[in-house]
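Subject: Sanity check before I submit

Could someone independently write out the structure tokens for this chain? I want to compare against mine line by line before I put it in a report. The sequence has 149 residues.
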Amino acid sequence: MKKLAFIFYMSFASALAWAQTDLKKDNEPKPVIEFETVVHDFGKIYDGRTAEYEFVFYNKGKVPLILSNVQPGCGCTTPEWPREPIMPGQKSRIKAIYNPATFRGAFSKGITVQSNAGNGSIQLTIKGVVEDTPKTPQSPVKIDVGGGF
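---
Independent answer below. Compare away.
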């Protein structure tokens, strides 16, 4: 019986120590990521041309911010983001590059930003309308029908 009580006591003590470690992690300061805007409307863009926008963000926390992943919702969007820590008070950018390829019409694409920020992952959105490139009018062609030298 003493052996069973000892095992129970040791299990309880180790669980309590682990719980305190987890509580300590929850109380540690975390960075806070804040974007100037989370939605960008390109308006009208033309087929065959990429469109780019830079989402500006700040680390409003007291410890370095680290972006662990920036994931587009589809293959037509390519994000570029800083791999180095963003220090407290600093700002940085995430560039979203949209390639409509052969797509026409309205679009709305999401980009998920994952980081060590206390406010969790953030969803960015780019949207717009892809139209055919306008045809440039041809200038009239002069044809000499003869007669004059």
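---
OP: Matches mine. For the report I'm noting this point. Residues 123 and 136 are 39 Å apart (CA to CA).
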